[in-house]
Known about the structure:
By secondary structure, this protein is an alpha+beta fold. It has a single domain, classed as Creatine Kinase, Chain A, domain 2 (2-Layer Sandwich), CATH 3.30.590. The chain contains 18 helices and 17 strands. A hairpin with a 5-residue loop joins strand 11 and strand 12. Helix 7 runs parallel beside helix 14. It is globular and about 60 Å long. The termini are far apart.
Amino acid sequence: MSTHAAPWSRTAAxxxxxxxxxxxRNIGIExxxxxxxxxxxxxxxxxxxxxRPGAEQMLMALGQQLGWPVVTYSExxxxxxxxxxxxxxxxxxxxxxxxxxxxxxxxxTAKIVAGFENEVEKVTSRxxxxxxxxxxxxxxxxxxxxxxxxxxYRLMTDFFGRHGTLGTTMMRxxxxxxxxxxxxxxxxxxxxxxxxxxxxxxxxxxxxxxPFSAGGKNGWKSxxxxxxxxxxxxxxxxxxxxxxxxFNFENYAELAWKxxxxxxxxxxxxxxxxxxxxxxxxALGQLEGCELNDENEMTCxxxxxxxxxxxxxxxxxRSIDGLRLADRYPCVAFWTGVIYSEAAxxxxxxxxxxxxxxxxxxxWVAAGxxxxxxxxxxxxxxxLALEMLEAARKSLVHRGLGEENYLVSLExxxxxxxxxxxxxxxxxxxxxxxxxxxxxxxCAERSA
Length: 448
């Protein structure tokens, strides 16, 4: 890879300019949830003729309840909210996402999210709508859901019609949790990125929660991981380049600049199709009406969909299915303990960092299918999970905030070889008698 001054050096400089001191770092969380009625009907953007409200109405009512301004972007349709505790947005299939303001601890993060979700319940529970913590809509097919009226999502739909195989499934049916961790310098940022990518198979094994699709079992513990893997190989996956010697911000920026974009902003400020141009080609004037600017530079970074990625100032962990509340904060605590500990990151890289890209991908696939029972190349997910859990616990104890208490239930699950999908499958095949309505209720429970 190129290491001399190049056009993408401006992006490397952007990543460098947002380093934060360790004393000021926080935890950011983005939580997506799927709106479902027990009869299997999914929340759509527009209201249903039978009187069921749509996401459009829900946002308006929620904005009024919270006193938060409604965000319309340039489409003149309600598509989000902006408030003092964070931002609300709709994913393409009307999944509701809350991006909480970064907080200093797992407990503070949980508190701010709980306050928001309680307000959501006040608005939506009267309609019998459940907000479900699963990684994939258990009932709907792609054709059942329209894409919300946002230009960039229409352009992405067109793009995925020509690239990959499951891009529209990803957009309309999946749900996940993303966790953001601040870095203090370039060396630490690359260490965090590598550890996050190396541990993506383990994260899939630990937090897989998408065993249902199209009204029944799909044979996976995390089918969401398979959807993202097949979405578009040019922008998804485990980024093997990150494990090459000397990999740095410059190399990362070059990767981003050379990936075909799905859409780009023109000189009039409107999102338009990129014609598969890269940011490098746009900077050279090869897409009429478009040019290199700050917005397109950020668009380029946002369109990398690997299992972990860099943003200015933080590393985003993306290998987590949508989770019910009882599993959510053990997951956040685990990742906080690992990523904010140099010793834990080094342990992860010692165990997984030297794997070939082929073996790492095989481990990821096996984790998606088998969860904690996956074992490839002598690597046992369950054994590795216990080892990394102990490293995370030591890190959290050192932080001195009591966050290690969140790991108690996670350790019990690991020792039993169960991830969230295993637990929900036990319910489905047992007491629920293969009734998905019971699964919807279970995955929407607000008590942890």
